Amino acid sequence: MFSNILIWFVIVPVLMMAGLACCSNSNMKAIRGVMVAGSVVLLAMSIWLVVDFLGLRAAGDTSEMLFQGSWMWYAPLNIHLAVGVDGISVLMLLLSSIIVFAGSFASWKINPLPKNFFLWFCLLSTGVFGFFISIDMFTMFMFYEVALIPMYLLIGVWGTGRKEYAAMKLTLMLMGGSAFLMLGLLGIYWHGTPEGGVHTWNILEISHNASIDPSWQTLLFCFTFVGFGVLGAMFPFHTWSPVGHACAPTAVSMLHAGVLMKLGGYGCFRIAIFLLPAAAQELSWIFIIMTGISVVYGAFCACVQNDLKYINAYSSVSHCGMVLFAILMLNETAMTGGILQMLSHGLMTALFFALIGMIYGRTHTRDIREMGGMMQIMPYLGVCYMIAGFASLGLPGLSGFVAEMTIFFGSFEHSDLFYRIFVILACSSIVTTAVYILRVVGKVIMGPVYNEHHRELTDAEWWERLATVTLIVCLAGIGFFPNWLNETIRTSFMPIIDALNSVF
Questions:
Q1: CA distance 459 to 361
Q2: Is the pLDDT of residue 484 over 60?
Q3: For 343-352, what is each residue's pLDDT tens digit?
Q4: Interval 347-379: pLDDT, tens
Q5: Alpha-carbon distances of 243 from 117, 175, 246, 314, 350, rounded to whole Å
Q6: Structural domain boundaries, residue 160
């Protein structure tokens, strides 16, 4: 087991928790040392994994999943700790490790109870990494729950504003989504086994050996897509997201919006569409309406907000809606764009929330009506915010342009007029995004200084610069060098495309 590198993506955060448990809350040097060491190891492992994965693919290994391992966990229900990754999983692990690394530095001066904060933060990371490496549905669901549970305390204790309300609303709504998801997974487990076969939770075994009855697929698709869609902030189940993001501490907002919401999109195509292709073909139009509303509604709501976090939170509803929208187009180009959007939005929104946290820590306000002239006062943070904004509105050379253009081109490949109308409506979000980004940049970053006391504020410290530079380099890297990502993602989508084509 321990020779499989994927297992170490779960072990390392657990070791970080053990190291933190040995520290006292007053020993910030030791706490930071554990977090930096652990996050560097995770980042190094993910980079090594990507390089090794690409090397194996280049050498001709066409296996559906690489680095596979399976160990019996609970024999009566045939539950295994089964792991494996394709190109999409590898990129999600890389994204997660980058944001954990950046989030550790963004929370350099977290108070109170820094040890307890980072313990829950590491548990959240454990769930995220475990989810992306799992190919057993039960194990995947378990890690999904592990990733959700810490959010209640991280927001309720270390958050701001209406933090108790936000923590409770987020937890209840996501647990409601989990109930739908569990029903869907149980249905796939019972009906996804050929007659006379052994029931299995393994995604690959179900896809290879089973053909779930179309009537059951319809019901199970609704359960699984809605279950994962709640976490992906799909309309009308998105209401937990803005208040949750707005009240969460900086690093939690980064990991939550940057990675945790991606569990929803990842689960939708890995389970709902891959294992239930007939229902995906039949019902995609219903969910296209819901995700199309998310894209447009989130962008318009962001335009009327005055709180920086709420602006970015509603922006996340729009961008995550675009991920699900692209996946539901059920063609290779659009779904590739959806995964690129997951990567782009993860980095972009993590950068936004990091910068908002840094600005709030100095000005003690997030109200754009009370701020101005940040470029004069904090030029480094001002430039970083502009870069994040330009990535969000799709400036060529940054990740947002690559992702959104791939989505819209791929989505318009769908020959049905109904789908094309919704693609045109979704495209309107580009203009709306430009409105709220330029509004904030013009007023907060480039405008006059409204509060003279702000002139005494300092610019970013070294740890803040390290966190932001890491994210900006990645945003530019995707924008300038998207080809290897495209090929990695496209290859991984082939089994899903084949499953969809087999329906006709």
A1: 11
A2: yes
A3: 999 999 999 8
A4: 999 998 899 988 888 888 888 888 888 888 889
A5: 20, 16, 5, 10, 17
A6: 5-501
Give yes or no for a contact between 501 and 67, defined as CB atoms under 8 angstroms apart: no
Q: Are 129 and 9 in contact (CB under 8 A)?
A: yes
pLDDT for the residue 222 = 92
SS3 of residue 305 by DSSP: coil
Tokens of 63: 């296996």
Structure tokens of 80?
């295994």
Q: How does residue 464 score in pLDDT terms, banded at 50, 70 and 90?
A: confident
Enclosing H/E stretch for 94: helix 87-106
| Euclidean distance between CA atoms 335 and 61, whole angstroms | 23
3-class state of residue 461 by DSSP: coil
Give phi and psi for 82, each to the nearest 5: -105, 125
| Tokens 């502009």, located at residue | 386
Question: Which tokens hold the place of 268?
Answer: 């939708």
233 Cα distance to chain centroid: 11
Buried b (16+ CB within 10 A) or exposed e, 54-93: eeebeeeeeeebbbebeeebeeeebbbbbbbbbbbbbbbb
Alpha carbon distance 291, 214 (integer Å): 23
In angstroms, the CA 324 to CA 294 distance is 10
How many angstroms separate the CA atoms of 326 and 446, rounded? 35
Radius of gyration of the chain (CA): 22
Nearest to 95 by CA among 454, 311, 348: 348
**What whole-number distance in Å separates Cα of residue 436 and Cα of residue 315?**
9
Residue 279 neighbours by CB under 8 Å, 6+ apart? 214, 217, 218, 220, 221, 222
Closest CA to 106 of 479, 471, 489: 471
> What's the one-letter identity of residue 178?
S
Evaluate the CA torsion angle 177, 183, 189, 193 in order and state its sign: negative
| DSSP structure class, residue 286 | H
Predicted pLDDT of residue 112: 81
Confidence of residue 20 (pLDDT cuts 50, 70, 90): very high
Name the band, by pLDDT with cuts 50, 70 and 90, for residue 495.
Answer: confident
Q: How far apart are CA 376 and CA 162, in angstroms?
A: 32
Query: Looking at the 3D structure of the chain, how many domains does it have?
Result: 1
In contact, 12 and 42? CB cutoff 8 Å: yes
- Give the residue carrying structure tokens 């090594």: 48
What would the pLDDT profile of 232-289 be if each residue is shown by its tens digit? 888 888 888 888 888 888 888 888 888 888 898 999 989 999 898 889 888 989 999 9
